[in-house]
Amino acid sequence: xxxxxxxxxxxxxxxxxxxxxxxxxxxxxxxxxxxxxxxxxxxxxxxxxxxxxxxxxxxxxxxxxxxxxxxxxxxxxxxxxxxxxxxxxxxxxxxxxxxxxxxxxxxxxxxxxxxxxxxxxxxxxxxxxxxxxxxxxxxxxxxxxxxxxxxxxxxxxxxxxxxxxxxxxxxxxxxxxxxxxxxxxxxxxxxxxxxxxxxxxxxxxxxxxxxxxxxxxxxxxxxxxxxxxxxxxxxxxxxxxxxxxxxxxxxxxxxxxxxxxxxxxxxxxxxxxxxxxxxxxxxxxxxxxxxxxxxxxxxxxxxx
Length: 304
Ligand code: NCD
Fold this sequence. Notes:
By secondary structure, the chain is an alpha/beta fold. Helices cover 38% and strands 15% of the residues.
């Protein structure tokens, strides 16, 4: 039984294997051809926190492979409001489904869930912890757009403290031999354990507070949202909200071939004028969640 909890669970070879399988899934993901690879199988998507792309792309992936989906988005109509523990919810749901995709506000929740589940748990975001399936689709996007997964300079810009996508992505990129610049407002720097890992691999580039400092030497600008919901103090959020803005002026100072990515949702980190520019890849990135999650489900549930 294979759980997907953290990017640390994947070797470089395994990541490449998922991406190769995802490439084979693109035509099915687009609806150009059909598949019944997971017919008769059931996926549970249980989301204790808001989600648009992650939940819907998992559901689409399962449906496109001929399987069925159960679950909930928000706990208000579930027994969680009656006081049911995560452990009991997982025990039960894992009896109804062949795999459980879990999003939860608490860091470590997905790992905890594995202790009570009889089927694979897939971490779809655990608080400010990790978001490994987002990382797989980010890597798929990078490989598709740049033609390679190594020797690139990626600048992660925004809330590096509470943003789980950048925690997982930085670790994975470093495994492939890429330089990572860390750009965040003061107080929202990358957690020490991630930075130490980048340093140990010799993959830490510049750590600074302004995208202007790194833009001329950036292949991929990966912008992220300030994670408002994780701030203990709303005044602190107001201090940093809207601090960074990716706009045509900033991009004009970047090298030829630079691309802009974002896990979405964006609030105001990327101005709408960027959407029509050739550098903008974030909507393709969101679509890539479908073939990548199809590949993952075929491995986790289908045993393929
Ligand atoms: C991200 C998340 O939930 O961590 N969204 C996503 O899954 N694409 C990013 C965010 O919420 O800012």
